[in-house]
Amino acid sequence: MTVALQSKQPSCLHAGTPLKRVKLAVYYEAMNADSAAYIVNQLASNYHILEDFAEVDLVPYGSTVHDAKADTYKCSLGEAQCISNKYQALVIDAYINKPKNGEPINGPHRAVTFVSCMFQSTIGNIFGALEKCSNSMLKGNDYKQFIEQLKQGSKSATLKKVFADMTAKTTKVAAKGLTRIPTVTINGKIDYGATDDLLGTVCSQLPAYAKPKACTKTNVTVLYEPLDHRTRTFFLETLKPVFRHLHGLINLQLLPGGRTINVQGSELMCPGADRTHRQNHCDAMKWQACVLDHFWQYGDNYTDPVRREIFDFIVCMLKNKEMKSVPTLVDSCSKEYIDDKAWALIKNNCFSKPAGEAVLRGYLDETKALLANVEHRDFPIVIVDGAELADHKTMRTHICDLIVRRLGYSFDWTSF
User: Fold this and answer.
1) pLDDT one-digit tens code per residue, 74-94
2) pLDDT for 12-58, tens place per residue?
3) To 10 degrees, the CA torsion angle through 55, 58, 63, 65?
């Protein structure tokens, strides 16, 4: 992705108001899958936006154990992880704590892209990966200098001090409740919202006049029928890749109701060729309505990773809809993507109770409020920023064009 940076300038009313930068720290460790996903997908991909509004610190320590008496370190994944942690600490010290200025690409930016490169490296040898990412992202003879300090080990005063600082920082935040890796602090406080949605959390800390355009997401509403073959094709071929790549830039709402006839006081009439198919469709809609209501829309259950799991649950149902009965299908997909306790709660308190039908009717009311003559429409239907698309197959290009105009991005959307 090639990014065209656009600085956000305060309006004339705020020209004399200094912007207080958000202090962001990421506590992670090398070779950790969750750290990799976070650094690559949230921090590095949004850094061109964050660097104007946040002071970023990286702490590559995680679950490392320090033997103070012997002054040695033990990493959960072995010596290669310790080597990578220490090397990254040296990079961070050189480019963030003592940023190398006077160059087009600033120090923190180099550090973030270097760490992201390491997590994406497919080179099996740790030194090969360090050398490749150093030569690509850092300057001059950095690789030789940092490797020399690693070879000196505890005899290197720089390495000893730098990693002692990382130890102290991690110990300090651990006292506040560090329970998972990565952990993110915003202005010195652990913020699990930032772990789940970094850009959104930083945006919430900024005054209105300073918010970049990236803080405004594109609203996408998809109205669909869970057992319809056209919905299956759309989700698998169009919506899934868009959601995977742009979930941080779109606000996706899913409404599983379609052409269902909803008359208060009467039985729901779901689409289908016969009574059995209509009942199966109603059950599939009710299950998805309960899951979306519990995890997608409201309160503490809503986080970005959870949304991705729920999206995968719905995709799982669509992929296998022809192969299994609805109860078997739901049971199989829930075991793969939804926590057992949460699933029991949904099953007992929503689907099996009148509440489940009430939730579905609520989604049907939303559908009817958005569309006229619902019973005679073809689904799925996509609405982007309030405008219905004439052809849902054009959703990807339409959304990407909007993002390009709003954010100034230039990227090849045909790659996904």
Assistant:
1) 998 999 999 999 999 999 999
2) 444 445 678 899 999 999 999 999 999 998 899 888 888 888 999 99
3) -110
> Does the reported pTM lie above 0.70?
no
Task: Check whether the bond before 182 is cis (ω within 30° of 0).
Answer: yes
**Cα→Cα distances 303→22, 40, 198, Å:** 21, 18, 11
Amino acid residing at 25:
A
State the CB neighbour count (10 A cutoff) for residue 228: 20
Helix and strand totals (H; E) in the chain: 17, 12
Residue in 110, 113, 111, 147 with CA at minimum distance from that of residue 130? 147
Distance set, CA 409 to CA 6, 298, 385, 404, 412 (Å): 10, 31, 19, 5, 10
Q: Which residue has the tokens 């003592």?
A: 98
Q: Compute the distance between CA of residue 224 and CA of residue 231 in angstroms, rounded to an integer.
A: 6
Cβ(177)–Cβ(170) below 8 Å: no
Do β-strands 183-186 and 189-190 pair in parallel, antiparallel, or remain unpaired? antiparallel
Could you give the C-alpha distances from 53 to 7, 24, 207, in angstroms and in order? 10, 10, 11
Alpha carbon distance 220, 387 (integer Å): 9
Select from 126, 110, 109 the least CA-distant residue to 118: 126
Residue whose structure tokens are 């779109």? 250
Amino acid making up residue 307: R
